[in-house]
Write a structure and sequence with these properties.
400 residues; 26% strand; Urease, subunit C, domain 1; alpha/beta; TIM Barrel; 2 domains; 7-stranded parallel beta sheet; 24% helix; 8-stranded mixed beta sheet
């Protein structure tokens, strides 16, 4: 149902990645720094959904088993996870976390142990974003906006001269360790009639460094079919549930053939919840009826997200549960699937022995919950995920 090809591939890749995990991790005699006890462990990377203990030693997953021996003599700390979900640390590939110094800490408390700032700044001020990513407690990287002045109220690239290939290339060359892709925002109020040329220039920059391009789609002037033709394997379409004009579906609710072709050649499709223009319930319903499920969930997070329909990544992950997505599929979209898009996350999104011990504890509550789209539309769901605790590098994160 959900990205079956990608899901199976991700499981195989994850298994291969850790075949050489140190023997010490599997030793029953090892001293554990932390044991997360009796939670429902859901790890789509190894198709695990069961009550398990998770033991951590020296910042890595040391064991996952039905019962792991340990007491005060050989274990420094324990977390009682009864009634909670224990999942790999969440990865949010479309945020604006680096726009504020407090952003990384705020999303970390929501279970996000890795994030990408998706185009907050361009070449002129990319250093501001990199400084936040460099000082973040968890892994954080940035996509450079092809518009050299970054996000602007009057449109990043309405003036086409702002889509400066040379400036973007120079910025990437100087900051290759923190710039992991190029962002092209293409909607009519951002790029106007320049959208195709803006994307062409973004691709010119990205291919120089073998980096992905992420496009912000929806409400473009150019037809989406024309735009996705420029996308290569590894590129990302965010805001995939944006309504017309130029949605991923046609007027009869069918997925555009060019969109299906893009997925077949390895283009990723991401939710990018956001606050304005990116999600409408009728569009979502038509897309999932067509069987075109997202590869990844993301929030388009900024510091006011908790007071909007975004709230946090677990809330965004909950929105498709009422449309038939399973819990394991939703978790895969924020863990193992996301880990395959950017190389820095290659060893994340899993609880396999030997992996870095980044863990999110979530609470799945049953009841009546209202979810908001970007058009003041609401739906009612019967279950919702809430962040409960975060472990980063084997250490529990303090929550406010």
């Amino acid at each position: 149902m959900l990205n079956r090809r990608q899901f199976v591939s991700a499981v195989a890749a994850s298994a291969a990645m850790f075949t050489r995990a140190p023997r010490a991790f599997a030793s029953a005699a090892a001293r554990y720094d932390l044991i997360i006890r009796a939670g429902r462990v859901i790890d789509p990377s190894v198709r695990l959904d069961a009550i398990r203990d998770v033991a951590i030693s020296e910042g890595r997953i040391a064991a996952v088993a039905a019962h792991i021996a340990g007491d005060a003599a050989d274990t420094a700390d324990t977390i009682d996870a009864r009634g909670k979900l224990v999942v790999p640390g969440l990865l949010d590939i479309h945020t604006h976390t680096a726009r504020s110094a407090e952003g990384p800490g705020l999303v970390l408390r929501d279970g996000v142990t890795g994030w990408i700032d998706a185009g907050s700044q361009g070449a002129d001020r990319i250093g501001d974003m990199i400084a936040v990513a460099r000082s973040a407690p968890q892994q954080g990287r940035v996509l450079i906006n092809i518009g050299r002045a970054g996000i602007l109220p009057d449109g990043d690239t309405m003036d086409l001269t702002r889509a400066d290939v040379g400036a973007a290339r120079d910025a990437i060359a100087k900051n290759r360790d923190f710039i992991v892709g190029v962002k092209a925002r293409l909607s009519r109020e951002v790029a106007g009639a320049n959208d195709y040329e803006v994307l062409r220039r973004a691709q010119e920059v990205a291919t120089s460094f073998n980096l992905p391009v992420m496009i912000h789609m929806g409400q473009t002037i150019s037809p989406l079919a024309k735009l996705v033709a420029l996308l290569k394997r590894g590129d990302v379409v965010t805001h995939m549930f944006a309504p017309p004009p130029n949605s991923i579906i046609d007027d009869s609710g069918r997925i555009l053939p060019e969109v299906r072709a893009a997925r077949r050649r390895g283009v990723w499709f991401d939710v990018g919840n956001g606050q304005t223009g990116h999600m409408r319930w009728d569009t979502i319903a038509a897309i999932v009826r067509a069987g075109f499920w997202p590869d990844t969930f993301s929030t388009d997070w900024n510091t006011n997200s908790p007071t909007t329909g975004v709230i946090d990544l677990p809330n965004c992950m909950s929105k498709l549960l009422g449309y038939g997505m399973t819990l394991a599929q939703a978790i895969a979209c924020a863990t193992v699937n996301a880990s395959r898009i950017f190389p820095l996350f290659n060893d994340r999104g899993t609880l396999k022995v030997g992996a870095p011990a980044d863990v999110a504890l979530l609470e799945l509550r049953k009841g009546t919950f209202e979810f908001l789209d970007n058009y003041k539309g609401t739906i009612t769901g019967s279950q919702r995920l809430f962040p409960s605790a975060t472990v980063l590098g084997g250490k529990r994160v303090q929550r406010a």
